[in-house]
Design a protein that fits this description.
The protein has 247 residues and is of the alpha/beta class. The chain has eleven helices and seven strands. The chain has a four-stranded parallel beta sheet, with helices on both faces. Helix 10 links the parallel strand 6 and strand 7. Helix 5 packs across helix 11.
Length: 247
């Protein structure tokens, strides 16, 4: 049975579909963020949301980097179609690396899919940023998803050096955050400082696992959180009022 798509008086009622589980904790945080930042006085003021959290989706970075032949797209497409069948009228994907498949996925669906990377780059530009540092998985960096979007929006960009990118990917994102361990914050900030030294006015937390560093450790406004941007724009896309964001 699908969610009802009409509100009082038969008016269209948006239903958000979240294509999640990539990774699981990021999906939890995204859902929590939407709920916490939607202007609401009662349960019925919140968004109707259906969530797919398929943690067994093949690793996106491994596929993009040619380290695995397991294509995540077929799993993502099937789950997205199930969300639409259940009543979703707009989709969000709280995973930057998965946006490697964005164009292909959007073409296959009859409902809009919010583009997390485009929205984040535009948010940085609106804040006066002219050069954006990219802190992301090696798959996202290799796919040039952020680099292409920066170029389309007229922004310069920088990524960590090869050694720093390896530390960010394997040590911080995979071993620590995905492994459920405390983050080596000084090492993370050292990598970010190198981007600042390269002339970046802002650095994007371009992996939803990195958003958890901001949640758990607190970060200054050199960092723009892609999860926060997606949550705010999702609330707006569903016709609700976002509150409490510092973007």
């Amino acid at each position: 049975m699908a969610f009802s798509q009409t509100g009082p008086g038969g008016a269209p009622h948006p239903v958000l579909g979240v294509l999640g589980g990539i990774g699981p904790m990021s999906t939890v945080y995204f859902y929590e963020m939407i709920t916490a930042h939607t202007q609401a006085e009662k349960d019925q003021d919140h968004l109707d949301i259906v969530i797919s959290s398929r943690a067994t989706t093949p690793d996106r970075s491994a596929y993009v980097l040619g380290q695995s032949k397991e294509d995540p797209f077929s799993v993502m497409e099937r789950d997205a179609e199930m969300l639409v069948e259940y009543g979703a009228t707009v989709l969000a994907i709280p995973c930057n690396t998965a946006h490697y498949f964005y164009d292909r996925l959007q073409r296959s669906l009859p409902v809009p899919v919010l583009n997390m990377i485009q929205l984040t780059v535009r948010a940085a530009k609106a804040q006066g940023c002219t050069k954006l540092g990219i802190l992301a998985t090696s798959g996202t960096v290799a796919s040039c998803s952020y680099q292409r979007m920066c170029a389309a929006e007229g922004l310069g960009w920088a990524v960590p050096c090869e050694a720093d990118q390896a530390v960010l990917m394997q040590h911080i994102i995979y071993d620590e955050i995905k492994g459920g361990k405390p983050v080596d914050l000084p090492e993370f900030l050292r990598i970010a400082d190198a981007l600042k030294a390269a002339g970046c006015q802002r650095a994007v937390l371009g992996c939803t696992e990195l958003s958890l560093i901001k949640r758990n450790c607190g970060l200054d406004d050199f960092f723009i959180d892609s999860t926060e941007v997606l949550a705010r724009e999702t609330i707006l896309a569903c016709g609700k009022t976002p509150v409490g964001f510092n973007l």
